[in-house]
Specification:
The protein has about 210 residues and is mainly alpha-helical. It has eight helices and no strands.
Length: about 210
């Protein structure tokens, strides 16, 4: 398995600062850009193309938080994590609240489409504003959960910095891999919830 952290000269850890990562990627990719090798042999061109593709794949992985965490888990575990579709502990209540709210908004939208009376339209408009406020409040809950996880990931870097070196038998046991997997799963659901709530806000605004 290609180590994208190693390829882009980054420490293997959960949190990375994106601006320095981008600057390094641009510098490294410029050095091997295929345009610089147009007069070279086919072997050199092929090597440059391969290196350029590897750097782009590594950057695409590391700049995306979910992809980075999955890659980190796969590197440390030697395999993909299991049960990533299972709702992580501590988010079940929020998941149920979001699911119920989305279903109720969908029902409201169906009912709203059938209203033709001007008087009823006023009432439906007011009800729509109430649903907008409720969905917005849920969106704020999701954002607060995301901010909490981001802060935790930054503090987890210290665990990786103090862990035994790569290849050392005690490394996996010293890392918070179980917690990292839970965060990865939570981020997957947060992304899904954010999209679902945003879709309802757009529908309510129409």
């Amino acid at each position: 398995m290609t180590d994208h952290f190693l390829l882009l000269r980054q420490p293997r850890q959960p949190w990375l600062e994106l601006d320095p990562l981008k600057e390094l990627f641009l510098r490294l990719s410029a050095e091997v850009h295929p345009d610089h090798c147009h007069a070279a042999s086919e072997a050199i061109k092929d090597s440059a193309n391969e290196r350029f593709a590897e750097l782009n794949a590594a950057y695409g992985c590391l700049r995306d938080l979910k992809s980075r965490l999955l890659h980190l888990l796969e590197l440390e575990l030697g395999a993909s994590p299991k049960d990533i579709q299972r709702i992580p502990p501590g988010t079940m209540d929020l998941a149920m609240e979001i699911g119920q709210t989305c279903r109720e908004v969908d029902d409201f939208m169906v009912a709203r489409a059938k209203v033709s009376s001007p008087m009823l339209k006023v009432q439906v408009f007011q009800r729509g504003m109430e649903w907008t406020d409720k969905v917005t409040a849920l969106q704020q809950k999701v954002n607060a959960k995301l901010d909490e996880l981001m802060a935790e990931l930054q503090t987890m870097n210290r665990v990786w910095e103090s862990a035994p070196a790569l290849g050392t038998p005690g490394r996996a046991a010293a890392l918070s891999l179980d917690r990292l997997e839970l965060i990865y799963r939570a981020l997957s659901y947060i992304g899904r919830w954010t999209q679902q709530l945003q879709e309802r806000l757009v529908q309510l605004a129409i």
